């Protein structure tokens, strides 16, 4: 599979063949990709939400008014779910949302995600993130030459302090280490720009997973 490889300044590019990139046919890996994305998003949930039932709301022990003769509906407690300030029926309680996905499914999903972005031309390679000075303006110029619009993910292994400082304040740019890259990262950005070193790390993860 061919990828576009840009020079460090983003001004020139060439097409290069990467034989180690995964290749898929049909729908293989799509279900695994869905399961892993759902699991990652679920595992990020804290699950600390909580509401009180009528038994947990303080007060309400006294009957608001007598049973008969007032012309109003019967009421036994001011903490009834029907009342403002009362308990909540079937409200959320703290729970664990985490989902377990085995290693082979995660590896397959990661390979399929890389293939999808590479196959659609949304994965670009830069020789290295090297700027004359660690300035946000210079980094923005490089990014705009490669991807003029949309949310961008930069991937390196690892980022130098200069690159991190130059890119961290760009609103539409996010940074991720190649070792931490996951299918959610690969799915949610318009363009993904990886360094040559990061691509080697990604390919080693894929080939180590034996998903081809």
TrEMBL record:
Family annotation (Pfam families): Ribosomal_L4 (PF00573)
BP-aspect Gene Ontology terms: translation
Record keywords: Ribonucleoprotein, Ribosomal protein, RNA-binding, rRNA-binding
One MF term in the entry's GO annotations: structural constituent of ribosome
Function, as annotated: One of the primary rRNA binding proteins, this protein initially binds near the 5'-end of the 23S rRNA. It is important during the early stages of 50S assembly. It makes multiple contacts with different domains of the 23S rRNA in the assembled 50S subunit and ribosome. Forms part of the polypeptide exit tunnel.
NCBIfam families: rplD_bact
Protein name per the record: Large ribosomal subunit protein uL4
Organism annotation: Cephaloticoccus primus
């Amino acid at each position: 599979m061919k990828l576009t490889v840009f020079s460090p300044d983003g001004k020139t590019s060439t097409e290069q063949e990467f034989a180690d990139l995964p290749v898929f046919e049909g729908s293989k890996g799509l279900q695994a990709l869905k399961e892993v994305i759902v699991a990652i998003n679920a595992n990020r949930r804290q699950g600390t939400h909580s509401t009180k039932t009528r038994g947990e709301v303080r007060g309400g022990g006294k009957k608001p008014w007598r049973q008969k003769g007032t012309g109003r509906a019967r009421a036994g407690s001011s903490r009834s779910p029907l009342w403002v300030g009362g308990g909540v029926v079937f409200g959320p309680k703290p729970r664990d949302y985490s989902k377990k996905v085995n290693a082979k499914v995660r590896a397959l999903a990661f390979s399929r995600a890389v293939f999808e972005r590479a196959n659609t031309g949304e994965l670009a390679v830069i020789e290295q993130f090297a700027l004359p000075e660690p300035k946000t303006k210079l980094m923005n110029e490089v990014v705009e030459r490669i991807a003029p619009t949309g949310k961008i993910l930069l991937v390196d292994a690892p980022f130098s302090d200069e690159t991190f400082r130059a890119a961290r304040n760009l609103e539409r740019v996010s940074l991720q280490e190649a070792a931490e890259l996951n299918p959610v990262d690969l799915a949610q950005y318009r363009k993904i720009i990886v360094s040559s070193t990061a691509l080697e790390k990604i390919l080693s993860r894929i080939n180590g997973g034996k998903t081809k």
